[in-house]
Amino acid sequence: MKYKTFAAFVGPSIFLMLLFIAAPLISVFFQSFYITQPVFETVEVETCTPGFPTQTCVTEQKTQPIIGEDGKVVTTVKYVGLESYRNVLEPDRAWAALSAFDFRALLTIDFWKALRFTLTFTLVTLPLVIGAGLLIAVVVNNASRLIRGPIIFVSLLPFIITPVIGALSIRWLFIGDGIMTAFLEWAFSQNISMFAQGWTIELLMMFYRVWHVAPFAFVVFYAGLQTVNQDTLESAIIDGASRWERLRYVIIPHLMPLIVFISLIHLMDSYRVFEEIVGFSSQAHRISLQWLTYDFLTPDDSGNRSISRASASAMLTMIGIVVLLVPLLRKTWRDHKGGRV
Amino acid sequence: MAEIQLKNVSKRWGSFVGVDNFDMTIADREFLVLLGPSGCGKTTTMRMIAGLEEATDGDIVIGGRVVNDLDPKDRDIAMVFQSYGLYPNMNVYENIRFPLKVRKVDPATHDERVMRAADMVELREFLHRKPAELSGGQRQRVALARAIVREPNVFLMDEPLSNLDAKLRVSTRAQIKNLQHELKVTTIYVTHDQIEAMTLADRVVVMKRGVIQQVGTPTEIYDRPANTFVAGFIGSPAMNLMEGTLSGGTFSGDHVSISGLSGPDGPVTLGFRAEDAAVAETGPQAEITAPVYTMELLGDATMITVKAGGALVSVKASKDYRIEIDEPVGLNIPAEICHLFNQKTGARIDV
């Protein structure tokens, strides 16, 4: 293709990516090193109340924001280096807790609490999503043509449902005496409250995520299964491979690039877990890194947003994703180079 | 040691008949070739023997054991596929070892057996390559090694040479023939290439639309085709088949008159092979006299084609024979090289 044609096709999307992805990223990166604060002044205020025989006057020092000409609070922007990161990570407390092997103490710090949950959530759901997706794909592929369509339709439903709605409906199934809780109580004849403690909520959140994402993995794997070389599969049958061995030695190696693809997507998505926190209202028990950023951005009682801490938290989240992706990307790169020998 | 018996084996999909009443016994150590055009049921027959396809009717017996309800892996067979069927993620060594591995053969013997199989097909130097780094011929040799490593009782080969280029085909063909001789294993080989069938087979089965047309040694099939289908399928070029009538021992048709034949009077199909006939002077002593339709140089011979008896008829002449198109030519067709077939059923008329 001519360079000009190529540029005409790719140009607009590169421009939009720069505008909407790269520019905010760089902006966030810089904002995490600065803090914006209102400028305060200390004034002496004399407050007098009527009294007898004279008024009672109290003179006190009061700190108040300076109001500018336009009637708005005057602010300054100050370079603080890694101060915001320190505020988020709280390294001293974290280190003290770590050296005392006191994980409970470590988890009282918001960031570490969020990181613990986010990592557990990501790493537990990943194999479940891939396993469930593969299982459905293999089952559908072996199902007779007649019921294949309905099965595909039903298994795709969770994927179509809006994330928050899906999370909410699961919450309603289990909260209070929702029908699932009622059923469980009936089945185990004991009192169950799924939303009274953190770990049950965490389980429900993971369950919801797997339920929601597995159909996507299924569709991709199902497409991949259509391209498995039938001769190779039949060779394996004749060579004496059982169903499981065929899956392990023929089908999974064939699907490996797709498994890596799903893993990449899932790692990126679930590390940014957010809808579940909102949908399950789990803030009191479980928070994620993305939710932490959101929490920093929410104005406090005096209307201030902690933009710098939010930026620092966002940058840390991004670094986390990159660290998680590196092994997979390295594997893909090696296979790519290996294939060219 | 395995004799294979197919007892009235049929395969039907709904009303479509894939293989109809296939009934024959394949002797131990025999090299049997199933030959026919695509869709004739030869591959289906082999897949039923392998267990990849279930027989609708009939019994398949391998080594005295009815195998109809056995899984492919319990039938003690090995199979080679047209597109190799190798495991792309494993290297050559692991590919050859795979049957041993999944069948839980004593791991101590693996290395020796893989090496022996690799040596037989001359693959020792490629053991660490992946299939993608091999040529087509080498890949098919890996498939062969994988088939022989387990020393099964039966080899099944499904057009193993069809994906190779002409030159490789010849050398791999020789290798297969030699391997079968060495290993003395009953082999069933499916092909649509009659030259492969002729060169490899102890016996050939010619099939058409699921029905056996003729079973015999390559010589029998070449010399005494059972019907016009076999006659037209075997040989290169295929047998010339002319339409005409026989009366009083003389066959006459368009541009052709051959006497000295014996057979019932009436309409018949007469066949002869291009290499048996010769070019002659035009005139009454030539059985066919017609203008030349085309002349082709084959290198070792010159092929002259004329229109006679309602068909194109080819004759091989010596390699330095030259003639122009439309020039009249006489062809010498002695009665003893002629085969007569029933014009309606196509069946051979034996005298």
UniProtKB/TrEMBL annotation, chain A:
The lineage of its organism: Bacteria, Pseudomonadati, Pseudomonadota, Alphaproteobacteria, Hyphomicrobiales. Belongs to the binding-protein-dependent transport system permease family. This is Carbohydrate ABC transporter membrane protein 1, CUT1 family (TC 3.A.1.1.-). InterPro entries: ABC_transporter_permease, MetI-like, MetI-like_sf. It comes from Roseibium hamelinense. GO terms for biological process: transmembrane transport. Its main location: membrane. The chain crosses the membrane at residues 7-30, 117-140, 152-174, 210-228, 249-268, 310-329. Residues 115-330 form the ABC transmembrane type-1 domain.
Automatic annotation (TrEMBL), chain B:
GO terms for cellular component: ATP-binding cassette (ABC) transporter complex, substrate-binding subunit-containing. It is found in: Cell inner membrane. One of its GO terms (biological process) is carbohydrate transport. It is a peripheral membrane protein. The keyword ATP-binding applies. It comes from the Bacteria. GO terms for molecular function: ABC-type transporter activity; ATP binding; ATP hydrolysis activity. Its main location: membrane. Residues 4-234 form the ABC transporter domain. Gene3D superfamilies: 2.40.50.100, Nucleic acid-binding proteins, P-loop containing nucleotide triphosphate hydrolases. Keywords: ATP-binding, Cell membrane, Membrane, Nucleotide-binding, Translocase, Transport. Belongs to the ABC transporter superfamily. This is Carbohydrate ABC transporter ATP-binding protein (CUT1 family). It comes from Roseibium hamelinense.
